[in-house]
Amino acid sequence: MKKSRGRTGRKRRRKHSKSFMDGVNCSHKLEFIRLKKWLKERGFEDSNLRPAEFWETGRGLMTTKALQAGDVIISLPEKCLLTTGTVLSSCLGGHIEKWKPPVSPLLALCTFLIAEKHAGEKSPWKPYLDVLPKTYTCPACLEPDVINLLPKPLKRKAQEQKRLVQELFRSSKAFFSSLQPLFAESTGSIFNFSALQWAWCTVNTRTIYMKHPHRECFSLEPDVYALAPYLDLLNHSPNVQVKAGFNEQTRSYEIWTNSHCKKYQEVLICYGPHDNQRLLLEYGFVAMDNPHSSVHVSADTLLKYFSPLDKQRKAKVSILKDHDFLENLTFGWEGPSWRLLTALKVLGLAAEEFACWRRILFGDVPSARNEQQALATAAKICQCLIEETQHVLLQISQLKRDRENLKTHLALVEMLRSEDLKILQKSAEILCNSNLGIT
């Protein structure tokens, strides 16, 4: 029976939780105790990092000592890493080596994860498998109704990701069947689509980059994956800098920080200078106030603002296509990108200015009229995207009321679209207040 702590106890508890900033220490939980014991048996020693639950990022790692630039955040021995070498040394190895055509390193890792998860208590990797997410929020797991709410460029990539996982499952059925001698149950029930989807998302969202020499038993796709237990609890921030890689001397995968981190604060690393669309596509999350984020403008949207009767339109589009100026056109926190304005300037060239198109690609301004027209068109496109984003956010809030089962996924798209809206509103403000001649 628990005793009441009284007012003094409550005060002490409040003070203690405050010292842990916004994170609640989770190292007492059984799954983390087992994981740390399992890692220690494989040579991992760490006394500074603690699993914790954070308000903004969810599950992560906090430090029990202040970190300075140049400090090692984590050093994970090779024995703790799950690679294709791990797979080949398991009972799956012989089957993979015999199978033709060779399987990809990605499929080998997925197969291993599914098999070990199915093994349950018998799996030597159980302490790690127990702390892996049960579900994921990358596009491969999103319902079509949710994918339809994504911005057009991301929607296409999300649909491609779903198709890719479906095709991997379809093309791997024969290989999965060949593993039947290893299992008492039917491989069809073990290696089903939801199992593969879970394993694919685990590899896609949680692996670190680690190059391995090519083995004949694998297809020619690069073998660059390693699952890193405990290390993969580190969350992303676009505002920190780290250095990471495999240390040949210590035979460990190490991460060094280039930033300061206070005691009891969450230790964050940077997965790369990715915008929110890339983060959602690759990892299934969105970063608030991401400095790398931008809103993409499709070529179709761009061309709506220029007359189809322009005799030089076809030539202008061809020039932009040949010089790769129809892709990666964006609005960011600092307004329309140089690439977007360049494309608008080329499309807005008057007949007598057309010969100047090369100069525009090098950053020259053919005329004040052309410059002003480009900025005015950018403002119109920006306003149109603001209205479109607001409309989608309204749809999302209605769907959240009607589709309880989609609430988590809808909240993710809502966050992405809300960040987009902030960027567009900032861009609209910059265009409106610009000293570049817009009236």
Automatic annotation (TrEMBL):
Catalytic activity as recorded in UniProt: L-lysyl(20)-[histone H4] + S-adenosyl-L-methionine = N(6)-methyl-L-lysyl(20)-[histone H4] + S-adenosyl-L-homocysteine + H(+); N(6)-methyl-L-lysyl(20)-[histone H4] + S-adenosyl-L-methionine = N(6),N(6)-dimethyl-L-lysyl(20)-[histone H4] + S-adenosyl-L-homocysteine + H(+); L-lysyl(4)-[histone H3] + S-adenosyl-L-methionine = N(6)-methyl-L-lysyl(4)-[histone H3] + S-adenosyl-L-homocysteine + H(+); N(6),N(6)-dimethyl-L-lysyl(20)-[histone H4] + S-adenosyl-L-methionine = N(6),N(6),N(6)-trimethyl-L-lysyl(20)-[histone H4] + S-adenosyl-L-homocysteine + H(+)
Catalytic activity, EC: 2.1.1.364
Molecular functions per Gene Ontology: histone H3K4 monomethyltransferase activity
Region (Disordered): 1-20
Predominant subcellular localization, coarse grouping: cytoplasm
Keywords associated with the record: Cytoplasm, Inflammatory response, Methyltransferase, Nucleus, S-adenosyl-L-methionine, Transferase
SET domain residues: 42-272
InterPro entries registered for this protein in UniProt: Rubisco_LSMT_subst-bd, Rubisco_LSMT_subst-bd_sf, SET_dom, SET_dom_sf, SET_MeTrfase, SETD3_SETD6_MTase, SETD4_SET
Localization in the cell: Cytoplasm, Cytosol; Nucleus
Gene Ontology biological process: inflammatory response; methylation
A GO CC annotation given for this chain: nucleus
Ranges of biased composition (kind: Basic residues): 1-18
PROSITE patterns: SET
Enzyme kind, highest EC tier: transferase
Assembly behavior: Forms a ternary complex with TBK1 and ZNF268; the interaction with TBK1 is ZNF268-dependent and leads to TBK1 monomethylation.
Similarity annotation: Belongs to the class V-like SAM-binding methyltransferase superfamily. SETD4 family.
Protein name: SET domain-containing protein 4
Native source organism of the sequence: Loxia curvirostra
